[in-house]
Design brief:
Layout: H1 2-10, H2 14-32, E1 43-48, H3 64-82, E2 87-90, H4 100-109, E3 114-121, E4 131-136, H5 142-152, H6 161-164, H7 178-181, H8 187-203, E5 209-215, H9 218-221, E6 227-234, H10 238-245, H11 247-271, H12 282-290, E7 299-308, E8 326-330, E9 333-341, H13 344-353, E10 362-367, E11 372-373, H14 375-383
Parallel strand pairs: 1-2, 1-3, 3-6, 4-5
Antiparallel strand pairs: 4-6, 7-9, 7-10, 8-9, 10-11
Helix pairs in contact: 2-12, 3-11, 8-11, 10-11
The chain binds zinc ion.
The site of zinc ion has 6 residues, from loops.
């Protein structure tokens, strides 16, 4: 630490010093992070669309529920066989009906790092063909809205769907306005994975690439991790249906989604090095902050690890091994946080790295004035 202090006093060139600071910071966080562990993508939930009494889209000889299940199992096997450290969880591995909200629950309860919902497309125009991968959001075209309407209609098989989905009517365009205001925390990561999938569909499986899209899918709505819905092709297109019912075709599709998963896993784990600042010495952080920082965000996300009516000493046993703790007194409650970033996702990763020690940690947003904001308010500010 002393070495770093002296080192920076000697440097006059600010730009060079910033570069060195960043490399030191990186080196420091990799070498000396709290538990020496980097973020690892550990759990994936694979959701085969439809099932049981809900067939999904039908082709001339096939049902969506069967093809989605077959591809899901193939994908899960590829991951289990080739990436042993990853826990594969299926929302269904037989022909059963599972309500959409329960599918998201399964992913949330298992603290999944990625949720993949697999579906087949349908269209009155039998020439429509190709693959598309969706992240949660407001549709940009009527075509995307139609896909979401068809997939969301699965809830009509559920009892009491109106209460369960807060009055959502899958067939009414007005219902979809909620997705305009919904803040999708994991959008960037979901879009990253979606684009890997589409790339692989094109190169590995030689499928027509209809692109990465967004629409309001109920199955993704309440997931608390990056999540995508993949339309692997049109059962209403006879040629594409032949490909999708074939064992070989399903292997290609599963292999493409698997390869995209591998790419995404590497990317996200590599990126997490940048976020493990928990043990960063103050001197280094100060040096970065001094550099006429650009784009100062109006709000910072932090991971709250404790709160109490009376102050807790930073030296207490409870905080052992954790440095750079911040204390905020908000509404007469002392709150203790670690980390700070304008990027919510960085805090998600940080939270995961300290989950063993602080299982109840959660993310809060603090305005520059020191006022705590709800996450919704914070996302609005950040997006302005
Ligand atoms: Zn479907």
């Amino acid at each position: 630490m002393v070495f770093i202090d002296i080192f920076f006093k000697q440097k006059k060139d600010q730009f060079l010093s910033l570069l060195l600071t960043i490399s030191l910071l990186l080196l420091y966080s990799i070498t000396y992070s709290q538990n020496g562990e980097k973020y690892l993508l550990k759990t994936i939930v694979i959701d085969a669309g439809h099932g049981g009494l809900d067939n999904g889209t039908s082709g001339k000889q096939s049902k969506e529920k069967d093809i989605a299940l077959s591809i899901s199992l193939k994908l899960g096997n590829l991951i289990k066989e080739n990436i042993p450290g990853v826990n594969v969880i299926y929302t269904r591995d037989t022909d059963v009906f599972i309500p959409l909200n329960e599918r998201a629950d399964i992913a949330n309860k298992n603290k999944a790092d990625l949720f993949i919902s697999i579906h087949c497309n349908g269209n009155p125009n039998s020439y429509a063909s190709g693959t598309e991968t969706y992240a949660m959001g407001l549709h940009k075209t009527d075509g995307n809205l139609e896909v979401a309407k068809i997939e969301n209609s699965a809830i009509l098989f559920e009892e009491d769907y109106s209460t369960k989905y807060e009055g959502f009517d899958p067939n009414s365009a007005e219902s979809y306005i909620i997705f305009k205001f919904l803040q999708n925390t994991f959008l960037q990561q979901s879009l990253n994975y979606a684009s890997f999938v589409q790339d692989q569909f094109e190169t590995r499986a030689q499928r027509k690439n209809r692109g990465v899209k967004q629409a309001g899918f109920l199955v993704l709505w309440k997931t608390t991790m990056p999540s995508v819905l993949i339309e692997v092709g049109f059962l209403t297109n006879p040629k594409e249906e032949l490909f999708l019912v074939s064992n070989e075709g399903q292997d290609y599709i599963a292999s493409a989604i698997y390869r995209a998963f591998k790419d995404y896993k590497s990317m996200i784990e590599e990126k997490s090095h940048f976020a493990s600042k928990i043990e960063t010495p103050d001197t280094i952080v100060d040096n970065i902050n001094d550099e006429n920082s650009v784009n100062i965000s109006p709000v910072s996300f932090k991971v709250q690890i404790a709160s109490a009516r009376n102050p807790i000493s930073f030296d207490s046993e409870y905080f052992k091994g954790i440095s750079n703790i911040e204390e905020y007194k908000i509404d007469n409650i002392y709150k203790y946080t670690v980390g700070s970033s304008a990027d919510y996702n960085e805090m998600v990763i940080l939270k995961k790295t300290i989950e063993d020690k602080f299982p109840d940690a959660f993310i809060i947003a603090i305005e520059n004035s020191g006022k705590q904001l709800s996450l919704t308010e914070a996302f609005k500010l950040v997006n302005q």
